[in-house]
Design goal:
CATH class of the largest domain: Mainly Alpha
Shape: elongated
Radius of gyration: 25 Å
CATH architecture of the largest domain: Alpha Horseshoe
Number of helices: 20
Largest sheet: 5 strands, antiparallel
Number of strands: 8
CATH superfamily of the largest domain: Tetratricopeptide repeat domain
Distance between the termini: 64 Å
Helix content: 55-70%
Number of domains: 4
Order of helices and strands: EEEEHEHHEEEHHHHHHHHHHHHHHHHH
Strand order of the largest sheet: 4-3-2-1-8
């Protein structure tokens, strides 16, 4: 891209997008009416990357030589038109800062989106398939999404969207406990950074970085910044709002989490993962009745979604419906037979509903999976809690902390919070910088 042409790229900032090739300013996808001179001034400002654009530079760019106008008044008018359209304030600028006796500086973060050639149909089709399988959020689906994202990268190594998708899929494999955390999340970060090097405006890459910070690095502030960055780039990105809501839940910011997941639902009302996550957010907020109701509504969208059945079963346990809980969790295992998380929840349910032998068989199955090279200590701990083996459960969680198990952040949920009186448990929360959850009784019927 040549810096001499301020319209040679597309720029994203806040809720806005300046589409260079078509010379349009959009807000959340809607085109705004703006005269050419203020539009040209905006293009110069965002291209300057935080540098002061002098009034003389604006004069030379906006008017041809030999033009006779009151330049100072015309520049002021153009900038005021921009501020009015952007909802900016000269005294407390979010976008355009006045630099006295010099000019103006654009102060909001700007993501530059370079022009790319149109993708060939085969690449586009592979991307669609990859996203479809990732959105299933099952081990089988995510593994297939990795294959398709790799196909796209082989065909077009400069496709930032494919690198971002691969990063999200890698992170999801780590979350599901299907790959060792160091392997899954380090490869996810590497793919996300590759995507951002190609195009720093790919929201999916920022989401993947947020996942790495949330599940592996346990850096809650950095995770929040990454999710918010993705939302700033694509305000209607349902997954960004969804994952941000889940982060807010584990930080006990429940009202914010509920508001955020509602935004996600509005962005994509028919998304099964988003609607299932509404149940998760209510569950973390210790409102199991609403968690059950939300899961039942999500099942109306897809009766074969294992994640939704698992969340429904967890909710049934807390409301004292043990038979319904084991039925829902059994269905979840049948629909996702390779999912250790689902099996661990069923093992916990069996232990709490009078079937400890079945719980132990599940525990043996989790810990003795020859085809899977990694066993999450968090899954082991959950079944042990159900069996009442507190010391062993705490030892497993401490091992999870030592090895950076992906779902250590789950220790604040109602099942793990049964350990609330244990000093070892409280020490884990302190080490993770997580809030102490409210007292929680046994989740049996």
């Amino acid at each position: 891209m040549t810096r001499s042409d301020p319209f040679a790229a597309t720029f994203a900032f806040g809720d806005f997008e300046l589409v260079g090739p078509s010379r349009e300013l959009r807000k959340r996808g809607k085109r705004l009416r703006l005269p050419q001179q203020p539009l040209h001034a905006l293009a110069l400002l965002v291209n300057a990357e935080g540098r002061v654009v002098t009034r003389e530079e604006l004069r030379r760019a906006l008017w041809q030589s030999g033009t006779f106008v009151d330049f100072d008044r015309a520049i002021n008018k153009a900038v005021n038109q921009l501020r009015q359209l952007l909802g900016d304030n000269a005294e407390r600028p979010r976008f355009i800062q006045t630099v006295p006796k010099s000019g103006y500086r654009f102060v909001a973060p700007v993501a530059r989106r370079p022009l790319r050639p149109t993708q060939n149909p085969q690449v586009s089709e592979s991307l669609l398939k990859a996203r479809h399988f990732w959105n299933q959020r099952t081990g089988e689906g995510v593994a297939r999404s990795v294959e398709y994202f790799r196909q796209v990268i082989e065909q077009d190594p400069t496709c930032a969207d494919a690198w971002a998708g691969l990063a999200q899929s890698r992170a999801t494999l780590g979350v599901l406990g299907l790959q060792p955390p160091h392997e899954a999340f380090r490869s996810a970060r590497a793919a996300a950074e590759r995507a951002l090097a190609l195009n720093d405006a790919v929201a999916g890459a920022h989401i993947a970085i947020g996942d790495v910070c949330r599940f592996f690095e346990w850096d809650w502030r950095a995770a929040e910044e990454s999710y918010r960055r993705a939302i700033a780039l694509v305000p209607e990105h349902a997954a960004a709002h969804q994952f941000y809501a889940m982060l807010l839940s584990i930080l006990a910011r429940h009202e914010e989490a509920l508001a955020e997941i509602e935004v996600a639902r509005q962005c994509d009302p028919l998304s099964v993962p988003v609607n299932a996550t509404i149940s998760y957010v209510w569950f973390e907020a210790r409102q199991p009745d609403r968690a059950v109701a939300a899961a039942l509504r999500a099942l109306e969208l897809d009766a074969h979604a294992p994640l939704t059945h698992m969340l429904l079963g967890r909710g049934y346990l807390l409301v004292g419906e043990p038979r319904k809980a084991t039925a829902s969790l059994t269905t979840a295992v049948r629909l996702s037979p390779q999912g250790p998380i689902v099996k661990a929840n069923l093992g916990y349910a069996y232990a709490r509903t009078g079937s400890p032998d079945k719980a132990r068989r599940i525990l043996d199955g989790i810990t003795r999976r020859p085809s899977v090279p990694y066993v999450s200590p968090v899954d082991v701990a959950l079944v042990l809690i159900g069996l009442g083996e507190t010391d062993a459960a705490l030892t497993a969680l401490e091992d999870g902390f030592r090895t950076r198990a992906a779902r250590m952040l789950a220790v604040t949920d109602p099942f793990f919070a049964e350990l609330g009186a244990e000093p070892r448990y409280l020490r884990l929360l302190a080490d993770l910088h997580l809030p102490i959850p409210p007292p929680q009784g046994s989740a049996n019927g």
